[in-house]
Amino acid sequence: MNSEGQDGESKSPIENLERVGMSRRGLLQGVGGASAFLGMAGLAGPAGAQDAPKDADGKVIPGFEEGQGDPNAAKGWQPVSDRKIRVGIAGYGLCRFGASFFYQNHPNVEVVAATDLDAQRCAGLAEAVGAKKTYPSCEEMIKDKSIEAVYIATDAPSHARLAIMALEHGKHVCSAVPAVFGFEAEDEAERLFNAVKASGMKYMMNETSTFHAALYAKRLQYQAGALGKVIYSEGEYYHDTAGMLGSYNPKNGAIDGFGWRRALPPMWYPTHATAYYVSVTGGRLTEASGLGMTSLYSVYKDGENAHRNAFGTEVAMFKTSEGGMSRMAVSWDMKNAHGEQGRVYGQKPHDKTVKGDRPALPPGVGAGGHGGSHGQLTSNFIESILLDKKPIVDVSEALNMTMAGVIAHKSALKDGEWLKIPQYEV
Predict the structure, then answer these.
(1) 401: containing domain
(2) In a domain, 202, yes or no
């Protein structure tokens, strides 16, 4: 996806986007949780490669490749209700992210509204999901009293603010990752948690690693007692993508090299890794000791950027709520390192007799991108509303996955000092 410049650094796709005239809103409003833009390569949705979203160079965006869906996903699905949830979707962008989670195909969903800050992209999203109403912003859409639930697929800094607003308006919320972001993360976490509790509505974070086949199989192993306590786990999210950090710049409203992705601390985007403990066990990461390595890419030079961050790679050790340990790593600049993966080791060996199949999906709902996780996440969120049950990644798990990284970054700035991770338990 990167092209090499004469100086040896990867050129940003933003240069290509500017060359073809793509606006900030056309890209970022739907990219939301960089799981769209920095997704897991080699994993696929049901659409063919010709239908998959592509970057300005015509290459399929990682996470949306063909050939890794689950062909048996719809076998054995049983409806739990004939009710239809009225859903509004925010964010389309380069990745068509708002339309890639199959809300428009779910038999228990009616997509009634769509929004993107860019008018052309908003119209494209509405057409893709069959929404009859459009709004110029997510804030305006949230005010629509007929909408019961919203899917927030916007840029990462807006996730918490929009989720809180939607909860306060009595709507269920599904948010792209991360749940909270940046320097405001700790304050946002408190406010988001309180908004969920006060509203009584469902909140779910769309962590794609949770429904990766291998992670989900380990989850079922753990729940069956086959692993015992998890002694050690690790998760990794690697992309050599320093040149991809061009993004929305609130100072000028454009996509450029000075937006929210520029020199992003790796551990501010941790959940594709931290899910490899939290989503397996339902437990919590309780303390963090992190280290960071200064990046050679110029955008990180001396931490002279909006995030005051010099690290291109961060690795953290965590203590867990069951007395084990976890290593989580996120990197934007390691060579020959790519994708999302993890390992989980318990007191007992893996039991091959415990079935690890992911749940059946409703007819028409594909497995989707990022390891066949898209359809599963949507199906789980909708079922949580219909059955009044906990979503697979509720607010407590979402905040633990996210805040573990935020605290790990703080620890890295303190050269590995152990720091406690705030806990938010419903």
Answers:
(1) 209-357+395-420
(2) no
Whole-number Å distance between alpha carbons of 40 and 272: 9
Residue 337: inside a domain: yes
Interval 240-279: pLDDT, tens? 876 555 665 667 765 566 777 889 999 999 999 999 999 9
Contact 86, 62 (CB under 8 A): no
How far apart are the C-alpha atoms of 378 and 2, rounded to whole Å? 31
Q: Is residue 363 part of a domain?
A: no
- Residue 94 has, within 13 A of its CA and on its CB side, a CA count of 32
Find the angle CA(214)-CA(218)-CA(224) to the nearest 5 degrees: 150
What tokens does 365 get? 């709902």
**Residue 328 maps to which CATH number?**
3.30.360.10
Most confident segment among 250-254, 298-302, 391-395: 391-395
Q: What is the mean pLDDT of residues 65-93?
A: 79
* 114 and 121 Cβ atoms separated by less than 8 Å: no
Q: How far apart are alpha carbons 196 and 185 in whole angstroms?
A: 16
State the distance between the two ends of the chain, measured CA to CA, in whole angstroms.
Answer: 41
Please give the model's pTM, rounded to 2 decimal places.
0.85
Assess if residue 260 is contained within a domain.
yes
| Domain count within the chain | 1
Q: Mark out the alpha helices in 325-368 (DSSP H runs).
A: none
pLDDT of 26 over the 70 cut = no
Q: How far apart, in whole angstroms, are the C-alpha atoms of residue 204 and residue 384?
A: 9
